[in-house]
Write a structure and sequence with these properties.
With 502 residues, the chain is α+β, with helices and mostly antiparallel strands. It has helices at 48-53, 58-62, 64-71, 139-154, 193-201, 205-219, 229-251, 301-320, 324-336, 338-353, 363-376, 381-391, 408-421, 428-436, 446-459, 463-472, 483-486, and strands spanning 30-32, 42-46, 82-84, 88-90, 93-95, 103-110, 116-122, 137-138, 161-173, 177-187, 253-254, 276-277. 41% of the residues lie in helices and 12% in strands. Bound molecules: adenosine monophosphate and magnesium ion.
Length: 502
Amino acid sequence: MSARWIKPLLKIKPHIHFDNSYARLPGQFYTRQNPVPVSAPSLIRINHALAQKLDIDPVWLKSDEGISVVAGNKVPDGGEPIATVYAGHQFGGWNPQLGDGRAILLGEVLNNQNERYDFQLKGSGPTPYSRGNDGRAPLGPVLREYIVSEAMATFRIPTTRTLAVAATGDPVYRQGILPGAILVRIAKSHIRIGTFEFFSFRNDQESLRLLTDHVIQRHYPKAAEQKNPVLAMLDAVIENQAYLIAAWQQIGFIHGVMNTDNMLLSGETIDYGPCAFMDEYHPGTVFSSIDRNSRYAYGNQPAIGHWNLRNLAQVLIPLLNKNRDKARELAQDSINKYMNLLTKSYQNGMMMKLGLCNVMPDDIKLIKDLLAIMAEEKMDYTLTFRYLSDLAGDDARDGVGDLITFSEKFSFWLERWKKRLILDEQTSIQRQARMYALNPVFIPRNHLIEEVIQAAVGEGNFNLFHQLVDIITHPFEYKAALKKYALAPRPEQVVNETFCGT
Ligand code: AMP
Ligand code: MG
């Protein structure tokens, strides 16, 4: 048969559509580095909804080839693996050189809507930035990250997400021997305040300029049309970060390691190490075993956000204006907006959590008084707001009233709140529906996560993990049969410390 009768081979569509803009930046931004293969990869879970959003076929992802990609045993077509470099202020102290010590950016996925997401493997072996560590991740923290990041996504809080988790079949050595795992992290990007600090510290103005242009193009294209695009970018980052931290405060999330290398320019939550949702409300709550001075306590998060953004503003000064004084003034004006933005966003959110719609003069006091009673009486943060939602209408759904106890003080406050509710122009049905959609009954509580990790690590049993993921991805629908997952921990179940994922 002559050649012209042979049909041209159908061009096979790659399983992941990569377009790697960060890898096109010059070499000082990263080191090219392949993931180090593992012995016996086995898939634990894939995130179907996220795979679909990325236009990655879930069936392929579960295939042998898909699992090899997840585990770092195969670099997919179009991938250009790199480990990126950054610096950071960790617990307030400066570290001039960090970087992806146990993560590899395989590339950037473009979905059919042309939305761009980093596809990163976490726990994929050592890189030039590992600083003597193994580049691996134990199974426990990997499961924790899947659960908590998915909860955050369900609450519509900007966050990196988990596409898949796989066991490696290899041990990792920490205090003892633990099973190793790899997590595929999906993020709008992994560019951190610490990435900017890295180049600023080296006085590398050209790289700083390239990085800024990259962030503007990728995350803040509207800033490019402004008179001062760098200032517009800084303003937008500050606004996003204020919104993000206000959202953490509303849901009762404690990040635990708000170092500048863990704060993304995109405004997504990243680094689910020693994070946790608060059970009893108290502003001083800390879980992280390494946060000895309570720097990153729940109540400090807004102020730490400010501290981190000041560092960003500081390193952008040379790009804000040729005149140093003028540049400083611009940076200062921009940073000064942060706390107001955060407070406004937080107060609006808290109003909505209480079912209030028209703003009235005493509303802030109503919120503050409730929080003061909750702190004093050690009330459960999540269940208290859920209980208010039960009380807000006439719905006869399963309620959480029997899961909490409360005092006379709280009952007095309830009377004030009920009097306030009738001043709003909304029916009780509307109010309750809004509150139920905003005040979860299920959060991934620490004691539940611990139970999941123990079953998985101790017995290789992932049933509890799958169950918890299924529950926390439907956090607003309470059924009494699921009471176990709604309850606050009993004293002997309370987890006081969570450990970094290292
Ligand atoms: P993190 O606490 O996860 O933000 O990590 C802080 C820094 O330590 C980052 O540069 C990580 O890449 C690095 N790192 C953490 N754990 C490991 C590990 N097991 N091996 C190599 N580098 C690590
Ligand atoms: Mg980190």
